[in-house]
């Protein structure tokens, strides 16, 4: 396990706002169109933006940098976050009342502990995330009533969607700090 030992100098790609990740005109999360209409479209838009944010925080890094545990004693890394969110997406299927799926990475904390500096692990982790996101999105696509309650805990679709947004938002905050520790790149 490799931990960060020296502090990198802060930097940004932005020229207009030096404390941001990128200039607003270059930010793929910014759109020219009208904002989403309705609660479902708004939740989906926020989720899509947080998913994109996570990927942006991981862009341009080597497998070693992605796997770096930069906030000791935590085992958290950017690659670990990618793997964790794949695992969480997979787990949410069970919340809908489907049969729970086996863990992607085996034992508890396998998502973070198995985040090692190997290109094959990196590639597989990104593929896992994409696949699990698509599966959960497809499973939710059949629900139009956000108040509908599902699963053994009778969770509403609304609550599940808000929880998904919250999970990504929380981990994007972690990703901001992890990335800054890795190479000094500031968050946005």
TrEMBL record:
<feature type="region of interest" description="Disordered">
    <location>
        <begin position="1"/>
        <end position="37"/>
    </location>
</feature>
<dbReference type="Pfam" id="PF04978">
    <property type="entry name" value="MST"/>
</dbReference>
<dbReference type="InterPro" id="IPR007061">
    <property type="entry name" value="MST-like"/>
</dbReference>
<protein>
    <submittedName>
        <fullName>DinB family protein</fullName>
    </submittedName>
</protein>
<dbReference type="InterPro" id="IPR034660">
    <property type="entry name" value="DinB/YfiT-like"/>
</dbReference>
